[in-house]
Amino acid sequence: MEAAKKHFFSDMGVMLGRSMRHIFRSMDTIVTVTIMPIAMMLLFVYVFGGAIQTGTDNYVNYLLPGILLIAIASGISYTAFRLFTDVQRGIFERFHTMPISRSTLLWGHVLTSLVSNAISVLVIILVALIMGFRSPAGILSWLAVAGILALFTLALTWVAAIAGLTAKTVDGASAFSYPIIFLPFISSAFVPTESMPSVVRAFAENQPVTSIVEAIRALLSGQPVGNDIWVALAWCVGILLVAYFFAMWVYKKRV
Fold first, then answer.
1. Tell me: the pLDDT tens digits for 197-250?
2. pTM metric for this prediction
3. Which of 66, 85, 101, 200 has its CA 20 to 30 A from that of 221?
4. How is this protein annotated for GO cellular component (predicted)?
5. How far is 105 from 6, CA to CA, in rounded Å?
6. Low-confidence residues of the chain, pLDDT below 70?
7. Three-state secondary structure along the chain?
């Protein structure tokens, strides 16, 4: 059993290294994923921020959690693209002829998504600091934020794996991310839900992005988190488990 685990983790390390080399050879993927949320943050803070009433003096503090989720939702589309490319080129079949743990092929892509999105998130936070973002949060609160973002990334990455394995075209592999990117706009990420019409407000308050945004915002501002963190974790873990099992089923069936 111990030998099998060692074999699995060593194989996964090799697959992670392979995927990361693709990322670093084509840094435009991380740059593209990072620039769009930063441009959006600049636009909302310096153009629309003065007209948006959020009850806070520093709009970038209010805005940042939603921008981070948009960056992650945008970044996972590249995971679907890379998986689709591997399937179309027969890369998985070639690896399956070798004595390696088959599930590590998927895990390599998933962990690469986690690392690349973490880089994007760090860059966006640094830009937010330049724009005036300030947080009284302690180390435990920052670790909690990192944990929530990591769970959110893993959950969406396994959803991306399903798209990458089942898509018929390269456009279809990445197009699934568009509705996910749009979700933060119908949440409390940009404005309080109280300002929305009743039907829109009902949807905004009962979709996963709002609870995740509210939990991160409370942690970063040093405020009591309440039930939002448990709702956020439940959404992330629930999506992660369902997407993981379905992705593995599709993977075994397809490859």
1. 889 999 999 999 999 999 999 999 988 888 889 999 999 999 999 999 999 898
2. 0.87
3. 200
4. ATP-binding cassette (ABC) transporter complex
5. 16
6. 1-7, 11-12, 24-30, 49-51, 53, 55, 93, 96, 98-99, 102, 254-255
7. CHHHHHHHHHHHHHHHHHHHHHHHHCCHHHHHHHHHHHHHHHHHHHHHHHHCCCCCCCHHHHHHHHHHHHHHHHHHHHHHHHHHHHHHCCHHHHHHCCCCCCHHHHHHHHHHHHHHHHHHHHHHHHHHHHHCCCCCCCHHHHHHHHHHHHHHHHHHHHHHHHHHHHCCCHHHHHHCHHHHHHHHHHCCCCCCHHHCCHHHHHHHHCCHHHHHHHHHHHHHHCCCCCCHHHHHHHHHHHHHHHHHHHHHHHHHHHC
The total of other beta-carbon atoms located within 10 Å of residue 142's CB is 13
Residue ranges of domains in the chain: 2-254
Separation of alpha carbons 177 and 33, rounded Å: 12
Residue 212: φ, ψ to 5°: -65, -45
